[in-house]
Design brief:
Blueprint (H helix, E strand, L loop, with lengths): L3 H4 L2 H13 L5 E3 L9 H8 L4 E3 L5 H24 L1
Parallel strand pairs: 1-2
Length: about 80
């Protein structure tokens, strides 16, 4: 489980993800308790190629992060469809 705010820096997050991928370990991005409505965790999970994304059980905070993942996917689908 990768908790970016506990890693210290984005470089450390990158190192953890690279080690996990090299060793065929699934990457799970997760929040800490006291989560905010900030959606950067969704961006990091997508950008670092997380296999799973843990963002709570219910509520506005979880919904915002899931919507952000959908938004990223839609933007990438749109860009790839314009190339063909």
């Amino acid at each position: 489980i990768v908790k970016p705010n506990q890693c210290g820096s984005l470089l450390e997050v990158k190192k953890v993800c690279e080690i996990a991928k090299k060793n065929k370990i699934k990457i799970i991005f997760s929040h800490r308790s006291g989560e905010t409505k900030e959606t950067i965790l969704a961006d990091l999970a997508f950008g670092f190629g997380a296999d799973f994304f843990k963002c709570g059980i219910e509520g506005d905070v979880r919904e915002l992060k899931i919507k952000r993942l959908i938004e990223i996917e839609e933007k990438l689908d749109y860009k790839s469809s314009k190339k063909t």
